[in-house]
Automatic annotation (TrEMBL):
Domain of life of the source: Bacteria
Name of the protein in question: Uncharacterized protein
Length: 298
């Protein structure tokens, strides 16, 4: 692997370069040890630049995140073959999140079609789970033009809009009640733990499949044996090495063992449900519309 030149690990610019460089340092050290030579870390100047580098074999590893994974895997000629992603702290599954639409059953349960004529609390424009996914679901259902989307400003605000009582003075707080909202599993979990969210009191209208935070892959032109060697190096990265990345992206990483898990492209763009590639196609999105992975970008 090293005889052909210095291996390069490139990532999508989903956060500040300095923060990414620090977070990935332990991962790069682990890969360098496994491959027997120094691996060089690079932050792409843009998603388009990384797509070009990956598809032209200019990098060894290419990591895409959020909507960027869909652009890397969509079309007739995917930029990468996915080998791994980060592991969740829950039974060794891929670190992922879910987009969902909920209603308050006290004011009538509905399906996607039933949202026509309703006001729905969304998060922020360009949020993957709080805007793009639910908007694509409503578009495919043929009711998007009949739904009033109201951007609340964050995932937590959308959740609070759904749970807000009709008479806000009961809580002595200012909130606008919505009977329908787009929610993100990353917010629902902590909100349930703090007793701010009781899922048993609300009805899920629609949900996406699990959306992996990232896709880590290699050029599709590489020989099979080389891909296996590179995948083995990824899967040997210890859990402790990914904790900085987990803090950046905000997922629960394993405390012990390894930090990555094997995964394939079908987990991103070949789902029977609405997936990343469907969202891009349905909404006619471009790489320029991918947001940083701050708390609201996903």
């Amino acid at each position: 692997m090293c005889a052909s030149g210095t291996p390069i690990y490139m990532v999508q610019p989903y956060a500040a370069v300095q923060a990414l460089t620090a977070a990935y340092k332990p991962v790069i050290a682990s890969l360098s040890k496994s491959l027997g030579c120094a691996v060089r870390f690079q932050v792409a100047s843009s998603i388009r630049a990384e797509l070009w580098s990956a598809s032209h074999g200019k990098v060894t590893f290419a990591e895409f995140a959020g909507l960027g994974s869909g652009f890397a895997l969509g079309g007739k000629h995917p930029a990468i073959e996915v080998l791994a992603t980060y592991e969740s702290d829950f039974n060794g599954t891929p670190a992922a999140f879910i987009s969902a639409l909920y209603d308050d059953p006290r004011y009538g349960d509905v399906d996607l079609m039933g949202l026509a004529g309703k006001r729905v609390a969304f998060t922020t424009p360009g949020s993957l789970s709080g805007d793009y996914f639910p908007r694509a679901a409503l578009t495919e259902a043929g009711v998007i033009s009949k739904v009033t989307m109201v951007y609340t400003g964050s995932h937590l605000k959308a959740l609070r809009a759904l749970t807000c009582p009709l008479r806000a003075e009961v809580l002595r707080t200012s909130c606008t009640k919505f009977n329908y909202a787009s929610l993100n599993s990353r917010v629902m979990g902590p909100a349930a733990e703090s007793h701010e969210w009781d899922p048993g009191k609300y009805t899920q209208i629609w949900h996406s499949d699990a959306i992996p935070y990232t896709a880590i892959g290699v050029s599709t032109a590489l020989p099979s044996e080389t891909r296996k060697q590179l995948q083995a190096a990824l899967l040997a990265v210890p859990a402790a090495a990914v904790h900085g990345i987990a803090r950046l992206i905000q997922f629960d990483a394993p405390k012990i063992g390894t930090g990555m898990v094997a995964i394939s492209s079908s987990n991103y763009c070949l789902s029977s449900n609405l997936d990343l590639c469907d969202v891009i196609k349905t909404l006619k999105l471009t790489p320029a519309q991918v947001r940083p992975l701050d708390g609201e970008g996903l």
